[in-house]
Amino acid sequence: MHTPMETPETDPLAVFARALAESATPMALSYFRTPLDIEKKEDLSPVTKADRSIESAMRAQIIDRFPGHGIYGEEHGSSKLDSPNIWVLDPIDGTKSFITGMPAFGTLVAHLEHGKPTIGVISIPPTGEIWVGQTGAATQFCGQGCRTSGCTRLADARLYTTSPDSFDAEGLAIFDRISARAAMRRFGGDCYTYGLLASGHVDAVVEMDLQPYDYLALVPVIEGAGGVITDWNGAPLGLDSSGRVVAAATPELHAEILSMTRG
């Protein structure tokens, strides 16, 4: 008897991942555009009570539902990384947007099986938009299937990166060469940009200096919408990746950008 493949709408892990991300929305909005004490972490990136409180609440839900699973979070570190199942959390992706009142921040949830991201959620609290991706299934945007644009040439591409400040000198020179050939380049967005890529509004994103909690949730979302996402050398993204990311609407566009980032 044929068993239908479970989808992000029916698979229990994917349903939980979506609910986990959505549970962060009311907390994030309760802190958004309110006075917050802003601290700097060791890497000098900003963090607030909102980031830490939301991640604590998300971790509590995972521990209650899946006590044997590992957790890798931006704010509270990692636990049980030897587990075959690991949850990767970014409670507020785009903290700089969040603390400056820009409604472009998101919540990211990834589920890894044996090191491979198999479920990813991008949730945008200010807009209520949410993308859910799962290996082997079509990405869902607010409950409906979505697809990348189909753009195959950099000359026709709408290219994004979050900030030129995230590149080192060599990386910025590479990005400048890539973007000089693109039809359009824009800055900002953090994880929101990758959701827009999955829905066909953006064609490519090139970034560096990302952390696993920044990029692992993006993988199932982009791939399930027909796109390609790897590191700058074309290798799959995992917990130990360099943090240099190329995401594109099609294999052809990805290969053209990769020809300029390899090495």
Automatic annotation (TrEMBL):
Gene Ontology biological-process entries: L-histidine biosynthetic process
Binding site for Mg(2+) 1: 74, 92, 214
GO molecular function: metal ion binding; phosphatase activity
Keyword annotations from UniProtKB, A to Z: Hydrolase, Magnesium, Metal-binding
Protein's UniProt keywords contain Magnesium: yes
The keyword Transmembrane helix appears for this protein: no
SUPFAM superfamilies found in the cross-reference section: Carbohydrate phosphatase (SSF56655)
Binding residues for Mg(2+) 2: 90, 93
InterPro entries for this protein: Inositol_monoP_metal-BS (IPR020583), Inositol_monoP_superfamily (IPR051090), Inositol_monophosphatase-like (IPR000760)
Pfam families in the cross-refs: Inositol_P (PF00459)
Swiss-Prot/TrEMBL cofactor(s): Mg(2+)
Transmembrane segments: none
Domain of life: Bacteria
Family, per entry: Belongs to the inositol monophosphatase superfamily.
PANTHER family the UniProt entry points to: 3'(2'),5'-BISPHOSPHATE NUCLEOTIDASE (PTHR43200:SF6), PHOSPHATASE (PTHR43200)
The protein's name: Histidinol phosphate phosphatase
